[in-house]
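1st attempt posting a full record on here, be nice pls
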Amino acid sequence: DFQRTLDLMERVKYDNLNSFAYSPRPYTDAALSEHQVPEEVKAERLQRVQKLSAVHGAERSERYVGRVVPVLVEGRNPKNTA
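the predicted structure (as tokens):
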């Protein structure tokens, strides 16, 4: 149930969230179900999840504005050439 996902997000308030619209996997029960969610509903739900995630991430980040905190640096990111 989609609302349960939003309710969980409100309780947990994740720092960061990777989210994607559902896409059927061949030969799975979900892919073979007659009760598929329309693409426009998937897109709208994904937008809602991502927007709520962005709000929660911003709220969490705002707690650190103006503060100095210790950090651990293990090395350079090899993908970052700057």
